[in-house]
Structures are given as C-alpha cells and as structure tokens.
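Saturday, quiet lab. Running sequence design on the structure tokens for the scaffold JK sent over.
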C-alpha cells in the first residue's frame, strides 16, 4: 500500500453494518476515519468509542457532515434502505467517492437518480456486494465464461433462512421499504446475474408475503406487530437473450431451503448448493452435469479454502474500493449492473401489488 496518500473517510449511519466497515477500515494504514453522522443522538459517539476510533468529528445528519467536512475523500453509506438514495446523491454532489451498502435503494427511480448523480460527479460509486470477493463465487462466473455450459437458457436461484428474521429498521416499510427481497435477495440475484454478464431484465411476475413475520407465535410479539415488509418473495423473470430466471428468497420458512441455484445450458448445467444464510460464499462444492462420449457424467469443483489471514471478503470489498480511488480505476461493483438488480427487485414489488406480470422500462441515462 502507498501510505504517502492517506484517504479521509466519513461514515454515514452507525448501525450494525457500519461495524464491519469500521473494523475493515481500521486495518488499513492509508485510511483515516475523520467524520461520522447518525440521526439518533449519542449513537455515533458511542459507536466510535466502542471501536476505539478517536478524534472523529460527529454530526446529527449526513447533510451537516457533508457541509462541514470540506476535505473528505469518500464516505460509506450505512443507513437504512429508505435513505440510501438521498445520502448517496448528496455525497456524490459534494464530489465524494461513495461505497453504498446493499441494497442499492428501494425503487428503480431512486437507482436511476443515483446513477445520474454518479455520472455527473465523475466519482467512483461502488455497491456493497462483498460475496463477489469470494473465490468460490468467482468460480461461478469463470465456469460460465469458459463456455462449458454452452448457451444459458434457464436459471433457478434464491435461498434463505428457516429462522432468520432480523429486527431493528429491517422490518418496517417506513425505514426498509423492502424486506428479505432487498436484504438477502439482492445477493442471490447478483450471484447469477454477474455470472452471466448482467443481461437487461424485460418482464417480471412477482409474489411477496409476510405470513411468518407477522405471526406472534413465530416472530416476537413486539416485532410481529410492526412487521410490514416481505419475509418471502418469488418471481419469474425474463431476461434479454431468451434467459428465464426463477427466483425465491426467504427470511423465514418451514423448510431447510427453497432449492439450490441451478444454471442450465445447452452443453452442461451447474448446481450451486444453497446456504442456510447468505454469508458470502456457496453452500458446498459445485457440480457440473454434462454428457461425455454419450454418457451422463458429473464433475465436482473443489471448494477454495478461506485463507485470507483474517482479512475476509468484507475487508476486500473496502480495499478494492480504496484501490480504485487511489489508482483512478473503476468501481469494483458498478452501479450500471446493480441498476438492473434494483429494477428486478422493484419489478417484483410492482408485480405483486398489481397481481400480474409487469414490463421493466429503464430510462436512458
């Protein structure tokens, strides 16, 4: 690392996800965390004290921080979903690089507004999809890019938890906007869409429910009473290139898994074992199925060991963002791709409300 150029970071939002950002940034000798903002009085002060980060200037809102801190290089946006767009656009308009946590936002329009602000600013905006940094995840894209599967025509993906409903701001529409669909569904979509080159989504037929989240016998009575987002979502999505995407995701279900991820091609198919919880890697060794010399055969891919010297995929997410800034590079996880991810999520929401298939229309930027 070139420590002669130190980057000054600000943290917007000091909730749970900000903990991983600060833990990663503290390991980097070329980064200084100099400012933080949170709407809840005293929360930011307690947060930085808990993590031993000193001399951080604190603000009651991101707007006040951005106005006062004239020499920041970048910010991490770690707020709840409903404020992702506002905080990111304001930071870009101030000429700052932004690492925006997932999901990108709540609606397609917000995503378009974010991309417009990014282009106008000329700064780097990267999205918080750390599973991309995992070597086992990277292998999925390598297999697809190798051509071994042939032409991809059908994908099944999703996953989720048998018991895994979060609390806090995750479960109310006024703060989260969307539930499991945005929280872990965006990861599942990115895994397969990134592997096949992020083709444009065309139509969505979607479904959402929250039977378990609102059940006081399944969820805590207090959280069940305020639960008004989805705990399960499913969709049938048509992509450019004649590809069908069959998707399902759950925070809670009376099942161990809604199914493995399957990528079907004209020459071979790939099975990717599901995980109990989206922890950044795959659930076990992948298998490829194909015919060789007229016989059906299976190939199992060995799992890459997690040999990262304590610097996991979250660290790599932050490091790749910082390196892109210092090297005048490009975003490790570009908004141009995650715009499609967000359009699918919003399409599922709109289709579920309408009770029918909807077309996805994306304005030119």
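Result came back. Writing it out in full:
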């Amino acid at each position: 690392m070139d420590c002669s150029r130190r980057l000054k970071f600000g943290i917007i939002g000091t909730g749970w996800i900000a903990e991983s950002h600060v833990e990663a940034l503290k390991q980097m000798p070329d980064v200084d965390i100099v400012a933080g903002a949170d709407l809840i009085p005293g929360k930011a002060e307690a947060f930085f004290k808990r993590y031993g980060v000193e001399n951080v200037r604190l603000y009651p809102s991101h707007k006040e921080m951005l106005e006062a801190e004239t020499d920041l290089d970048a910010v991490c946006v770690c707020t709840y979903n409903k404020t992702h767009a506002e905080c990111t656009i304001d930071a870009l308009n101030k000429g700052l690089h932004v690492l925006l946590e997932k999901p990108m936002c709540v609606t397609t329009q917000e995503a378009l507004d974010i991309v417009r602000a990014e282009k106008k600013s000329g700064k780097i905006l990267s999205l918080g999809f750390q599973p991309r940094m995992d070597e086992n995840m990277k292998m999925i894209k390598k297999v697809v890019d190798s051509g071994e599967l042939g032409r991809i025509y059908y994908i099944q993906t999703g996953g989720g938890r048998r018991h895994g409903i979060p609390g806090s701001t995750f479960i109310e529409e006024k703060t989260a906007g969307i539930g499991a669909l945005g929280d872990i569904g965006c990861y599942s979509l990115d895994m397969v869409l990134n592997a096949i080159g992020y083709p444009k989504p065309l139509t969505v037929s979607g479904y959402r429910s929250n039977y378990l989240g609102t059940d006081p016998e399944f969820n805590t009575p207090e959280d069940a009473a305020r639960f008004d987002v989805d705990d399960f979502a499913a969709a049938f999505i048509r992509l450019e290139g004649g590809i069908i995407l069959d998707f399902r995701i759950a925070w809670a279900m009376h099942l161990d898994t809604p199914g493995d991820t399957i990528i079907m091609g004209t020459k071979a198919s790939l099975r990717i074992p599901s995980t109990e919880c989206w922890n950044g890697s795959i659930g076990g060794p992948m298998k490829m199925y194909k015919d060789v010399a007229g016989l059906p055969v299976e190939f199992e891919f060995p799992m890459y060991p997690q040999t990262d010297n304590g610097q996991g995929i979250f660290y790599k997410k932050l490091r790749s963002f910082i390196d892109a800034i210092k090297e005048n590079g490009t975003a490790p996880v570009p908004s141009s791709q995650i715009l499609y991810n967000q359009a699918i999520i919003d399409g599922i929401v709109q289709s579920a409300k309408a009770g029918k298939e909807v077309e996805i229309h994306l304005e030119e930027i």
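Notes for JK: The longest strand covers residues 152-160. The chain has a mean pLDDT of 96. Ask whether to fix the surface positions before the next round.
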